[in-house]
Amino acid sequence: MVAVTFPDGARREYPQNTTGLDIAKSISPSLAKRTVAMALDGKLADLTDPIAHDAKIEFLTREDPRVLELIRHDAAHVLAEAVQTLWPGTQVTIGPVIENGFYYDFFRNQPFTPEDFDAIESKMREIIARDRPFTKEIWSREHAKKVFRDKGELFKVELVDAIPQDQEIKIYKQGDWFDLCRGPHMTSTGKIGNAFKLMKVAGAYWRGDSSREMLSRIYGTAFAKQEELDAYLKQIEEAERRDHRRLGREMDLFHFQEEAPGSVFWHPKGWTLFQTLEAYIRRRQADAGYAEVNAPQLIDSSLWVASGHMATFRENMFLVQPREEDERTYVVKPMNCPGHIQIFKNGLKSYRDLPFKLAEFGKVHRFEPSGALHGLMRVRAFTQDDAHIFITEEQIAEEVIKVNDLILSIYEDFGFDDVTIKFSDRPEKRIGDDAVWDKSEAALRKALEASGRPWTLNKGEGAFYGPKLEYVLRDAIGRDWQCGTVQVDLNMPSRLGAYYIDEHSNKVTPVMLHRAMFGSLERFTGIMIEHCAGHLPLWLSPLQAIVATIISDADDYAREAVAAARAMGLRVESDLRNEKINYKVREHSLAKVPVLLVVGKKETAERTVSIRRLGSDKQQTMPLGAALAALAQEAVPPDVKRVKKAA
RNA sequence: GCUGCCGUAGCUCAGUGGUAGAGCACUCCCUUGGUAAGGGAGAGGUCGACAGUUCAAUCCUGUCCGGCAGCACCA
Fold first, then answer.
1. Beta partners for A409?
2. Model confidence over A105-133: pLDDT tens digits?
């Protein structure tokens, strides 16, 4: 007998190997009918699984949030059956559940197109309507391989081989169609329902390996209810509405063009935004004791050979040979570290100089694969808010904690409070001895633990010169962006011959921390645009207000208002055009100007302004001086506000 | 880089084997109008680049460049 505990705490005994379905039926036929799967000790399982030992059991209906992944997984199987029915000879590979849906990868000479979706979806509906039960069989390895080989499913044969020896080979059938799968599944295809949709097709490598076959991947999503699917589709539209590439054009911030793939043409407004962000970081890091420097853009390749970049980073570097007859090759810097080490080395350093902190808004160039380029988020030329901190080994933990605090405080100022930390340890392609790596990783881990923040391990993802922490922030619509980083480097300073004199007059190689907070200013600008859907807070907005006239008799007063606003440090323009106020309101609203100061006959006479904020159709009339003073106050950057408050 | 799709006016997009069109934006004129598009006129394009097929190519074919989605890579 096995003892089964129900969610309400009741406990009953059943003969060994009674299935969940039997138990549900014994309780009530309607429960058995509604139940699509079960959770045993919290773990999802097939309802038809026998219960082998004492367990807590929960019967799950398709409305249970935990069942969503089953709906999607089942839908992936139905997708695969539909595709194989429509196009016999297509090989199936894998079809997992992902964050917002599922996909299935197929191997077929002719790739799918979105035009095929209607046919596939209706075939899927047919299969779902047939409502065939999912049944599970355990096959021997040999049998499974033979069956798949005979069917021409060579990828499946490879998958069977990849399953660890101590695991069973499970086959799930839905009618005649079957697939190798670890499960679990719901009781039948009919439980999937009709709230599903195929989303897109794309190529994907077999087993994620760019040297292997390219498969044709069909993405889909599924929900328990149609309303949830509709809400999801709406959310996708929302993300498109926030796309920084589109907003960048609408707000006249920047553009790209063919001749400079992956490089930004910043327009006046975009560059103002960029510089406002830069100025913010400059204040924050000056406060934290960093000295700003500037190192050359082009440095002879010999230095990059010495640093290890030539050996490990070359495919990402731009090389310049300015004269054919001159064999000298320069590297357009892809990183700032070697330059900063030269500055450290110039002049003898004492242990008393440590920590020695050099910061640079370093413009770096990296030859990114063309397919990786994406607006401001992934470019080939970008500006890092980079710094290198030269310290002793004993100072590592303390300094990492300081950087950690600084980074988190900065993200708060921009409204990012959901930040996670990833710890990346040694990659395969690296420089330096394992003993050095042991030391670096241990120090970083110690600092991480001292910070008391939750973190996750990102195995083998460290930089080639050292392990790193990476800061991932979540934006307003739930997307994650990797921005800041701290990296411990016990390799490069010695490779480039950096040392300081310790208290016993010995030459000692310093430890170097690499750190960036925004990471790339270009990318951070893009993230901010999307995070606030173009509605930048006043202090960041490149154009903070427009003084718009209703009649031309107000022109002089409008000019006066603009001059007064500028004198207070506000970024303001006038709109004196011969257009109706409706037109002006619409145009500036679309351009995401945060504040509209409307002046007509009445305002001119009374020396007031009618204030309209972006996103609201309400108006407030205030005396000009008071309105500008309030705006000027609001436009003070958050860090400056803190300092003022403290004073 | 790989797979698929795409490239026509500043933007969004029609269209055709006989060298092109709309709306918005732009310029000018009229209109001075109270909070998301007032009216009229005009100007604007080597149809991504280069080859090929053809009497004739923006359209068909090929190569290249660029973009989009995903993969791989990554700040």
1. none
2. 999 877 787 778 888 999 999 999 999 99
Say if residue A202's pLDDT is above 90.
no
Q: Answer for the pair A294, A269: CB distance below 8 angstroms, yes or no.
A: no
Q: How far is the CA of A261 from the C1' of B50 (A)?
A: 20
Whether CB of A114 is under 7 Å from strand B: the answer is no
Which 342-381 residues of chain A approach strand B with CB closer than 7 Å? 366, 368-375, 378-380
Q: SS3 for A478?
A: coil
What is the rounded distance in angstroms from the CA atom of residue A417 to the CA atom of residue A570? 28
Backbone angles phi, psi at A45, to 5 degrees: -150, 160
Q: CA(A600)–C1'(B73) in Å?
A: 56
Over the Cα atoms of chain A, what is R_g? 31
DSSP class of residue A428 equals S
Question: Does A594 contact strand B, using a CB cutoff of 7 Å?
Answer: no
Assess whether A483 (CB) lies less than 7 A from strand B.
Answer: yes
Active centre residues of A (catalytic): 337, 366, 384, 386, 388, 468, 514
Residue whose entry in the numeric block shows the structure tokens 């309101």: A585
Residue A164 CA, chain-centre distance (Å), reads: 32
Segment A556-578 shows an average pLDDT of 96
Q: Give the model confidence (pLDDT) of A78-91 as tens digits.
A: 999 999 999 888 99
Peptide bond preceding A164: is omega within 30 degrees of 0, i.e. cis? Answer: no
Q: pTM of the prediction?
A: 0.89
List chain A domain ranges: 2-61, 67-239, 254-521, 545-643
Predicted confidence (pLDDT) at residue A647 exceeds the cutoff of 80: no
Are A251 and A538 spatial neighbours (Cβ–Cβ below 8 Å)?
Answer: no
Domain A2-61 superfamily per CATH: Beta-grasp domain (3.10.20.30)
Mean pLDDT (chain A) is 92
Give the alpha-carbon dihedral of A409, A413, A414, A420, to 10 degrees.
Answer: 20
Q: Which two tokens stand for residue A44?
A: 């999802």
Classify residue A262 by its DSSP letter: T
Q: Cβ of A596 < 7 Å from strand B?
A: yes
3-class DSSP state for residue A159?
helix
Q: Tell me the C-alpha distance between A125 and A75, whole Å.
A: 10
Nearest nt (C1') from A199 Cα: B69
Does CATH place domain A545-643 in 3.40.50.800?
yes
